[in-house]
């Protein structure tokens, strides 16, 4: 049976890549967004994230949260939107997979320092990293949801090439053999769909970097 997945904010750059990857693998994909569908998703529901109901997300094997907010006044939406989606799938078998950020990855074995707290982390991205980290912290408190938070590498390239290869990491910033922390949106989508298809992670954060 083909897996049924929903992608929230499917019209965003990450959402589009994930939809394309999932459809290419034979998944039954329903996209949710506020604008006209221009993605590979076979089905589309034009609806604001905060207007979604339990009924909208019922029956899916997985729900992918590809929502993003980037302006100062909208940054708190990372937490409120994620908690809303968590409420909608709470107590069900539906897995909630979150397109996360890299700033909350740890750079030490003791897990005391986040990437966003290191000297070379760009100041412009610190508010976003903080907001996404706070959303992850709230998600960690949820024992009623089958969630997986997937952080990309530090250099997350929207137009990067698809290689189909990646290294799976955990809570810590992982470098590839070339000493880089980089991944394309296309390869991130491969990792996301792999996790939906055959992954066994639950209630944990994983991370991916180009192999």
From TrEMBL:
Protein name per the record: NAD(P)-binding domain-containing protein
Domain NAD(P)-binding as annotated: residue spans: 11-195
Xref: InterPro entries: NAD(P)-bd_dom, NAD(P)-bd_dom_sf, Polyketide_Oxido-like
Superkingdom of the source species: Bacteria
GO MF term list: oxidoreductase activity, acting on the CH-NH group of donors, NAD or NADP as acceptor
